[in-house]
Amino acid sequence: MLTDHELRARLRRFWPGGVRWQAPMAALTTLKVGGPAQALVMPGTRDEVTRLINGCRIEEIPCHIIGGGSNLLVADEGLAGLVIGLGRNFAGIGRIGEDQCGRILVEVEAGCSLAGLLNWCADSALSGLEFAAGIPGTVGGAVVMNAGAWGREIKDVLASLIWLSGGEAVRKARPELDFTYRCLRRPDDAVILSAVFTLAPGDRAAIRKLCREHVAARRSRQPKAYGLAGSFFKNPEGVAAGKLIEAAGLKGIVSGGAMVSERHANFIVNTGNATAADIIRLMELVQARVWEVHRVRLEPEIKIAGGVTEKAAG
Ligand SMILES: Cc1cc2nc3c(=O)[nH]c(=O)nc-3n(C[C@H](O)[C@H](O)[C@H](O)COP(=O)(O)OP(=O)(O)OC[C@H]3O[C@@H](n4cnc5c(N)ncnc54)[C@H](O)[C@@H]3O)c2cc1C
User: Fold this and answer.
1) Considering 203, 221, 239, which residue would you say is the last residue of a domain?
2) Residue 268's domain is classified under what CATH number?
3) Same domain (yes/no): 217, 231
4) What are the tens digits of pLDDT across the range 106-116?
5) What's the pLDDT at 311?
6) 10 Cβ partners below 8 Å, 6+ apart?
7) Residues 259, 187: one domain?
8) pLDDT computed for residue 307 by the predictor
9) Residues lining ligand 1, CB < 6 A?
10) pLDDT for the residue 314
């Protein structure tokens, strides 16, 4: 691990802008756990993102990308190196044209929140993304996770994207992209810079109404908790992970400040003072018990970053 002094010296070679040191990741994630980022930068333009990513590669600085932090569990040890936060500083939206069928193509920078995008769509009377109303996080996070609800996924409305990989920004059209359930398969170092969505002209009021209905339906189903991410485990083929967890008698079990939600068993929540270690212990306990009872292996949908537990969980 680089010392702060070494990291500062390397960052100075390519980044003249501001840096936050020892930034608490708990404040940047919806689970509200995890230690600090050694250094955090929130770039505002595509050039800045590119400079940061390429600089880290050349200077051999470990680098982590975070969007809205709504699908991310950061280890208590925190994250060594640079965390690049793609958020509201990097959130432009613009119409770029029409396809042959008269549908509107809209390009969105990765840090734009889905909520912000949906508002823009409703104002612009453009339909297609209503299914995503109420999903927290950014466009970049939603593309990487192939976020979805109500039987629709981001891949269904995506026309193309630009990712930065190996120092090159490359546009990939939808047919070139390999999406699976809650996953975009991509090179390990690929950072999504922007995405183009295909939307249809629609009715402003109808778009808003459908979004409101989706948000209300979510509120009635999801747990209320101090901290939570989305569904903790991927649904195994043909069965809901929550049903397996509930049938294994695990609703309400706790590990320190972490608990399997009483309301929806596929949520592990932070009741107020959970550590990342509490959540990981509970995750492993649930996996072991579901295997014993159902002989099904549950795979985490959330991503785990940092510490000895670092793995691409899903
Ligand atoms: C209450 C609640 C409800 C939810 N409901 C749903 C739901 O219905 N459906 C659903 O699919 N999900 C749901 N989620 C999960 C989550 O909101 C989605 O997975 C979301 O798309 C994650 O986006 P994010 O910006 O928060 O990503 P983050 O949590 O910040 O990051 C997730 C992963 O993506 C990577 N990443 C983020 N941005 C980029 C980028 N630009 N380039 C490369 N990698 C990147 C990160 O490194 C990390 O590995 C829910 C979460 C919560 C808290």
Assistant:
1) 221
2) 3.90.78.10
3) no
4) 999 999 999 99
5) 43
6) 2, 59, 60, 61
7) no
8) 72
9) 30, 65-72, 86, 110, 135-138, 140-142, 144-145, 147-149, 191-192, 222, 228-230, 303
10) 35
The pLDDT, as a whole number, for residue 221 is 86
**Beta strand 268-270 with 227-228: parallel, antiparallel or unpaired?**
antiparallel
Whether 292 is a known active-site residue: answer no
- Are 120 and 127 in contact by the 8 Å Cβ rule? The answer is no
295 exposure class (CB count in 10 Å sphere: 0-12, 13-18, 19+): exposed
Catalytic residue check, 220: no
Compute the distance from residue 240 Cα to the ligand 1 centre, in Å.
19
Q: Which two tokens stand for residue 54?
A: 């390429």
Q: Which of these is catalytic: 70, 127, 160, 231?
A: 231
State mean pLDDT over 164-190: 96
Q: Is the pLDDT of residue 299 over 50?
A: yes
Domain that holds residue 290: 227-302
Q: Is the pLDDT of residue 313 over 80?
A: no
- Residue of the CA atom closest to atom 36 of ligand 1: 141
Angle between helices 114-123 and 204-221 (to 10 degrees): 150
pLDDT classification of 100: cutoffs 50, 70, 90 = confident
For the chain, give the longest Cα–Cα distance: 56
Stated as kind and residue range, the H or E segment containing 59 is helix 46-59
Whether 80 and 121 share a structural domain: no
Q: Establish if 308 belongs to a structural domain.
A: no
Which of 145, 155, 235, 270 for mutating ligand 1's site (highest number of atoms within 8 Å of CB)? 145
Of residues 108 and 307, more confidence is placed in 108
Q: How many domains does the chain have?
A: 3
Same domain, 204 and 239: no
Average pLDDT for the chain: 95
* Claim to verify: residue 106 and residue 215 sit in the same structural domain: yes
100 and 167 in a common domain = yes
Do residue 45 and residue 128 come from a single domain? no
Query: 98 and 78, same structural domain?
Result: no
User: 144 C-alpha to center of ligand 1: Å?
Assistant: 8
Q: Specify whether 208 is catalytic.
A: no
**Is residue 163's pLDDT more than 80?**
yes
